[in-house]
Design a protein that fits this description.
Blueprint (H helix, E strand, L loop, with lengths): L2 H6 L6 H9 L1 H20 L2 E4 L1 E6 L25 H14 L3 E6 L7 H14 L4 E5 L5 H9 L4 E3 L7 H7 L6 H14 L2 E8 L6 H14 L3 E6 L16 H14 L9 H6 L3 H7 L4 E2 L6 H6 L13 H14 L3 E3 L14
Parallel strand pairs: 1-8, 1-9, 2-3, 3-4, 4-5, 5-6, 6-7
Helix pairs in contact: 2-9, 3-10, 5-6, 6-8
This protein binds 5'-deoxyadenosine.
5'-deoxyadenosine (5AD) binds next to loops.
Length: about 350
């Protein structure tokens, strides 16, 4: 049986079969896009889940070569939102109907583990009907556990690339793929709904690397997968590298949807930044999550992972309305439920 048949039958593929799917994108993409959308509809219906994204600190101890908030970038205005500001943004989001808050930030030593646990607790106490997602990088298992005990439900930690040598090409010596994968395992063991993911078109990435990413995702079986194109940022070592390919990004969304029919898959801001209709195309290719920005204007302006990042200057309410409208145009519905992974829906009191 060939790779396409296996993918559609829910069977595991070899690395070589993933390579085949990638190398034959030109003739497979139209059919697999359609199948991916059908698979999404069959599992989650027309709903697109929204998460309120709060980028609460751009301090980071890491120095990833691709990232605009890397430690060595001295041109970034560093900021750290305090608890009152974050809770205020949650209040705005709650008022708009959002029931998931994503707290994303760099690996900021200035935000102690304890402080973040208290913040998660405060959000969950005020909004027990909401899910809290954390996305703050690599930490010891005990720390992940303490945040889970404080009420955090989900954790996003992109693996970035599943190839050891490619990981080395994207990160300085002190970071390793092994540590990253251990963190992902720990998060899963603790009981989080876990998201991994990668950039498409990051420097040094070829078909073999992408096949490795798909092979890893197939075995790890995450609840969520974040995939967006690499976009250069002018103050990083990768400033002169070309952007990732939007069509290829869409294809990878479709492959992941087909591989993991119940995965929660965002149409990312990076994709919407690269392609004028990127978000909508993402939903038509298998995505079913959107993460509008709830951060205050000042924070958004300085959370510059890459150049030309969309959404500065747009109020949360305004962007939610725009999203609602664009979803209606493609016959999808903005859902204001928590939007948990199907196998993990648990009642909340
Ligand atoms: N282009 C696209 N995505 C990026 N990220 C970081 N820098 C860039 C960039 N230059 C992504 C990484 C990270 C996520 C928060 O943002 O994959 O995990």
């Amino acid at each position: 049986m060939d790779g396409v048949k296996k993918l559609l039958a829910g069977e595991a593929l070899s690395r070589e079969e993933f390579v085949y799917l990638l190398e034959n994108r030109a003739h497979l993409q139209p059919m697999l896009t359609k199948k991916a959308e059908e698979t999404c509809l069959a599992n989650y219906g027309r709903d697109v889940y929204v998460r309120g994204l709060i980028e609460f600190t751009n301090y980071c101890r890491n120095d990833c070569y691709y990232c605009g908030i890397r430690r060595s970038n001295c041109y970034v205005n560093r900021f750290r939102l305090d608890e009152d500001t974050i809770l205020e943004r949650c209040a705005v989001g709650y008022g708009l109907g959002l029931r998931t808050f994503v707290l994303q930030g760099g690996e900021d030593g200035g935000y102690s583990f304890h402080r973040l646990a208290n913040l998660v607790n405060a959000i969950k106490t005020r909004y027990p009907d909401c899910a809290v997602t954390l996305s703050v990088g690599e930490h010891p298992k005990e720390v992940y556990q303490s945040w889970f005990d404080a009420g955090a439900d989900r954790y996003l930690l992109r693996h970035e690339t599943a190839s050891t040598s490619h990981y080395r090409h994207l990160h300085p010596e002190r970071q390793s793929l092994q540590t990253r994968l251990e963190c992902l395992e720990n998060l899963k063991e603790i009981g989080y709904q876990v998201g991994c993911g990668f950039m498409v078109g990051s420097p040094g990435q070829g078909v073999a690397e992408l096949a490795e990413d798909l092979f890893f995702i197939q075995s790890f079986r995450p609840h969520m997968v974040g995939i967006g194109p690499f976009l250069p940022q002018k103050d990083t070592p990768f400033r002169n590298e070309p952007s990732g390919d939007g069509e290829l990004t869409l294809y990878l969304l479709s492959l992941v949807r087909l591989m993991l029919p119940r995965v929660l898959l965002p149409a990312t801001t990076a994709l919407a930044t690269l392609l004028p209709k990127g978000r909508e195309q993402g939903f038509l290719a298998g995505a079913n999550v959107c993460m509008p920005n709830l951060s205050p204007e000042e924070a958004r302006k300085n959370y510059t992972l890459y150049d030309n990042k969309l959404s500065t200057g747009t109020e949360a309410a305004e962007s939610l309305q725009a999203l609602d409208k664009s979803l209606q145009a493609i016959d999808r519905t903005l859902s204001l439920s928590r939007g948990d992974h199907i196998e993990r829906t648990k009642p909340y009191v």
